[in-house]
Amino acid sequence: MTTPTTALDWNRSYRNGDHHTYWELSHPSAELVGFLAARGPGAGRTALDIGCGTGWDAIALAGAGYRVTGIDLSEEALALARARAAEEAPEGAPPAFRQADARDLPFPDGTFDVVVDRGCFHHLGGEDRALYAAETARVLRPGGCLYLRGSRVDSFPFKPLTAQGLADEFVRFGFAVGPLLPFHLQTDAMSLPAYACVLTRTTTSDGANA
């Protein structure tokens, strides 16, 4: 499989049905359900789902009481997410979906209390990771968190999560990096050895403690 790198590539992948072959999950991810149960009700707090795909995790966030925005590079994926949310999301509080790039987020500073990512960051490398970290720090409120899930194996097309790598990429932007917890990232078609990690934004934009 050629790794999609642009919106055009991802749109083509969704049209071709590649998501069913590789990364689609036909229900909210088990690890996100556990994360939300541990945090308690969202109670109107704001959440961003980066690389939301066809929308299941955004729907789970909405069901937990968050006001949710899901972003993806692919308009094809977003069309599927909107259709799914129309059927599955709680009445009165459906997720909003929009096309956007995690390296250049179209939101004001401090918009979100929680950011979640299941399998977007591990496609990025080099400067793209720094842009991602800077943007997630910018849109998170002080004290907010990024719940990151990605590969723990260094195998194309994935670039693994490592403790040192996350420290290098996120601490300079005011994050405290939690432990990397091993699990298997399940899709309908495969199981990928992965890590989950909670990164907490501990400082404000001027460097003060949150």
From TrEMBL:
Enzyme Commission number(s) from the entry: 2.1.1.-
Pfam families linked to this entry: Methyltransf_11
CDD domains: AdoMet_MTases (cd02440)
UniProt-listed InterPro entries: Methyltransf_11, SAM-dependent_MTases_sf
EC class name: transferase
GO molecular function list: methyltransferase activity
Gene3D superfamilies per record: Vaccinia Virus protein VP39 (3.40.50.150)
Domain of life of the source: Bacteria
Sequence ranges assigned to domain Methyltransferase type in this UniProt record: 48-147
GO biological process: methylation
Keyword line: Methyltransferase, S-adenosyl-L-methionine, Transferase
Stated name of the protein: Class I SAM-dependent methyltransferase
Native source organism of the sequence: Streptomyces olivaceoviridis (Streptomyces corchorusii)
